Amino acid sequence: MNDVDTQGPSAGQQSVTVWDLPVRLFHWLLVISIATSWAAAELGWMRIHFLSGYTILTLLLFRLGWGIVGSYPARFATFIGGPRAALEHLRELRLPPDRVPPVLGHNPLGGWMVVTLLLVLLAQAGSGLFTSDDIMVDGPFVDLASNTAVKTLSTTHRLLFDLIFVLVATHVAVIAAYLVIRRENLIRPMITGRKTVPAGMAAEGLAKMPARRSGLLSATLVFCTAAALVVLLLGTA
């Protein structure tokens, strides 16, 4: 059965399980890894920078896999909609919060933000394998590419960080706006795994959420597969 606490944290509300532990661990480990990678690059600690980059690549591959076989709210199919869904959500934002059914997982706009961040980070991690500063720092695959390709990918790697900064800043700003304007805390569910919704109001996707959920064993297998792929990839260098 779905994990719903009908008593709720307060009268008129109910607490529903949304994000599983693998998704939450992925989220916060990715935040730490990105911050570490940036700080290491700024300080010239390139060994740490590369190690954090490999960690980011592993986490991204895990999330791609978990987005296919993971728990219901984590699957891409549940939160990636078309332009109509995104426009409809924008129209709903103009309505009072009590007139809009709560979304358990990512809303249509948030879903596309997640996909965009994953793709840009994947491109960043991938291009980092081919980067070189022509002095002392070379990615593991520099020798496998032409000088032109290395220069192009090195430039791409540097420029993508600016885009990542913009996307992360936008992500944080939207979270703050939801908290201040909509009175909806998007951070707490990513920590506790649970989200509070009005009692009696049908949350989007709640009725469709299957009773069976992918567990920690499945997540461990997906993560180990992702780590093995990165190790094999680096072993070919």
UniProtKB/TrEMBL annotation:
The organism's superkingdom is given as: Bacteria
One GO biological process term is: respiratory electron transport chain
Main location group: membrane
InterPro entries, alphabetized? Cyt_b561_bac/Ni-Hgenase, Di-haem_cyt_TM, Hydrogenase_cytochrome
Gene3D superfamilies assigned to the protein according to its UniProt record, in alphabetical order: Transmembrane di-heme cytochromes, Chain C (1.20.950.20)
Under the heading SUPFAM superfamilies, the entry gives: Transmembrane di-heme cytochromes
- Keyword check for DNA-binding: no
One GO cellular-component annotation of the UniProt record comes to:
plasma membrane
UniProt KW Membrane keyword: yes
**Topology within the bilayer:** Multi-pass membrane protein
Give any GO molecular function from the UniProt entry: heme binding
State where the protein is found: Cell membrane
> What are the UniProt keywords, alphabetically?
Cell membrane, Membrane, Transmembrane, Transmembrane helix
List the protein's name: Cytochrome b561
